[in-house]
Amino acid sequence: MRLLVVGGSGFLGREIVRQTRCAGHRVAATFHRRPPSGDLGAGVDWHALDIRIRDDVARVAATARPDVIVNAAYRQSDWASTADGGAHVALAAALRELAGSPYPGIHHVAGPDAISRHRLGVLIARRDGLDPTALPTGRRAASGVPGPAELRLDCARTRARLTTRLRGAHEFLAAGRS
């Protein structure tokens, strides 16, 4: 088995890396500033990663080609690293799982929610500490803006094929900052 430990240089990540290596598995791990040295650094395929950058997360997952991805990255004072970065890692895990699956075609990984554009804006505003009442409401058809009024992607088939759980907008945006 090949494991990718995101945040492998951190407190929890170092122990996951150590135990995985002791169990005889191959390990790829990430660090934010510098890879660990000494015994921990030996025998590990280290990758520099800022999990706040979604494309970088996808690149590392594609390069490491893990069977399992563990996210041990955490920075208490940094919401973007802890929450948004975690969402990027989860998305990369779902995409990696789909890429290795025998299921060709289009897969929606947006989560199970059918949500209006206004409701999505309200959830984002609340998550970011903004006043959601500042968002205008009204009938979209009268606005003249082209496109659908609601965002609806049916991901039931994709969810049934994945072991990675897809979270919908209500779940990951309604949690807010704590």
Strand content: 5-15%
Assembly type: single chain
Determine and state the CATH class of the largest domain. Answer: Alpha Beta
Mass-distribution shape: globular
Describe this structure in words.
The chain is α/β, with parallel strands linked by helices and 178 residues long. The chain has 2 domains: 99 residues, NAD(P)-binding Rossmann-like Domain (Rossmann fold, 3-Layer(aba) Sandwich); 70 residues, no CATH class. It is built from 6 helices and 6 strands, in the order βαββαβαβαβαα. The strands form 2 sheets. The protein has a 4-stranded parallel beta sheet with strand order 3-2-1-4, sandwiched between helices. A two-stranded antiparallel ribbon has the order 5-6. α1 links the parallel β1 and β2. α2 packs across α3. The longest helix has 21 residues. The protein is globular, with a radius of gyration of 19 Å. The model has no long low-confidence stretch (mean pLDDT 79).
